[in-house]
UniProtKB/TrEMBL annotation:
Keywords: Membrane, Transmembrane, Transmembrane helix. Its main location: membrane. GO terms for cellular component: membrane. Residues 21-400 form the Cation/H+ exchanger transmembrane domain. It is found in: Membrane. Gene3D superfamilies: 6.10.140.1330. It comes from Halopelagius fulvigenes. The keyword Lipid metabolism does not apply. The chain crosses the membrane at residues 6-25, 37-55, 96-118, 124-146, 167-188, 200-218, 230-248, 347-370, 376-394. This is Cation:proton antiporter.
């Protein structure tokens, strides 16, 4: 019990501290982002630091981190679904289709090719490593596009695009992860059959249908009760958090993709209940980002596989540099003519660089290890998360300011 209280005090204190000084952190072009501070905090508290906290009392450390990551992603994609206007998906359908179809395939294959070349992995293992880092992380994306600094310097159309892509592709990455995962576990013909019938049709397609039905139903009920003043405006936060966790658990119990279902449910709820004004008033996304996202980075810092990273040696540096350089930026440059919010080279470079690898990769890499027992999925995946945290966390504020300085179209 004392360890639990110590953990609550330390992690709660960190969130409190960052919440108080967050304005100063984001206003400066030189201070690191909050997730970097949280990871360093976790390293200092964990086994390689002062060893005052461990995940072991909560259960197997990796299992704990995997589930915390899953909950964090669910909260992050709900935040995005609430922030985007209900009509956004229809208006930007072509742009989203471009980055979620050929765009995600490009990121998967590019990341896999770098992993294959840098680490000399078997082809399907390299494809698995590439898949776990394919999604643009919604948690880190939120830290880049949410807040006063982002609003003052980045056009709304670009912020919405980065958010919408990150919200959807987290669940869509399920398809890319499970194809190599199944082929590594079963004969090719059986694996492909399982992937089409189970993963594509039920786990992804079923998640979309279930999420839409549940979110729409809850949204209609919320609108009905609001019109009759049966609920207070403050309940918007309660309803959306409850919807997030209920959908995540229920859909997963049915064997479908809970994260994708959560995003669809949030979008459907937003469309039906239209709580955008209340959500903005309540600063729902700020509450989500502060309270739910920082702890997972503390846990990640406590769980970093230092020995595995050291074993990779120079190949690890090549992996990180190659993936950061070739995973996303070339894809955005190739597809920008089909992506309306990216209307010039400056926007393409910004959107191409800020496609962070984060909590989604933590979740998928741990899931991959659990299913295949291939340790390289966690070693390489966590290293790429660490590299992305540093690269994107250290450049987010200065490049955001620079974007605003170069033009007068920030909204």
């Amino acid at each position: 019990m004392s360890k639990l209280n110590l953990g609550l005090a330390l992690i709660g204190g960190l969130v409190l501290f960052l919440s108080v000084v967050v304005g100063a952190l984001r206003a400066s072009a030189y201070l690191p982002s909050e997730p970097i501070v949280a990871v360093v905090f976790g390293v200092a508290l964990g086994p390689v630091g002062f060893d005052v906290l461990r995940l072991t009392p909560l259960g197997p450390p990796r299992a704990v981190l995997e589930q915390v990551a899953r909950l964090t992603i669910a909260v992050a994609v709900t935040s995005i679904a609430l922030r985007l206007p209900p009509s956004y998906y229809r208006r930007r359908a072509r742009a989203l289709a471009a980055v979620l179809g050929p765009g995600m395939a490009f990121m998967w294959l590019a990341s896999s090719l770098v992993a294959y070349a840098a680490l000399s992995l078997p082809p399907w293992t390299a494809l698995l490593v590439g898949a776990v880092v394919t999604p643009t992380d919604p948690v880190l994306a939120n830290t880049i596009v949410v807040g006063r600094t982002a609003a003052e310097n980045i056009p709304e159309r670009l912020r919405y695009f980065l958010s919408g892509e990150a919200g959807i592709n987290d669940g869509a990455a399920y398809l890319f992860v499970f194809l190599p995962l199944l082929i590594l576990r079963y004969p090719v013909e059986a694996a492909l059959s399982e992937w089409v019938v189970s993963t594509l049709v039920w786990e992804v397609g079923g998640a979309v249908v279930l999420g839409a039905l549940i979110g729409s139903a809850v949204g209609r009920v919320e609108r009905w009760t609001s019109e009759r003043r049966y609920v207070e405006k403050a309940s918007v936060l309660t309803v959306t958090i409850a919807l997030t966790f209920a959908v995540l658990g229920f859909v997963k119990l049915l064997g479908s993709d809970g994260i994708l279902a959560v995003f669809v449910a949030g979008a459907a709820y937003n469309w039906q209940a239209n709580p955008r004004d209340e959500a903005r008033e309540q600063r729902v996304e700020e509450v989500f980002n502060r309270l739910f996202t920082l702890p997972v980075f503390v846990f990640f810092g406590m769980s970093i596989p230092w020995v595995g990273w050291a074993t990779l040696g120079w190949r690890g540096a090549v992996l990180v540099g190659g993936v950061l350089a070739f995973r996303r930026l070339p894809m955005i440059l190739l597809l920008r003519r089909y992506v309306d919010p990216i209307d010039d080279l400056r926007a393409a470079l910004f959107a191409g660089w800020f496609g962070p690898i984060g909590v989604a990769a933590i979740f998928y890499s741990l899931l991959a290890v659990r299913e295949t027992e291939l340790e390289i999925a966690w070693t390489a995946g966590s290293l790429l998360v660490g590299g992305s945290l540093l690269a994107h966390g250290l450049t987010a504020t200065p490049l955001t300011h620079r974007y605003g300085e170069l033009g007068d179209d920030a909204e």
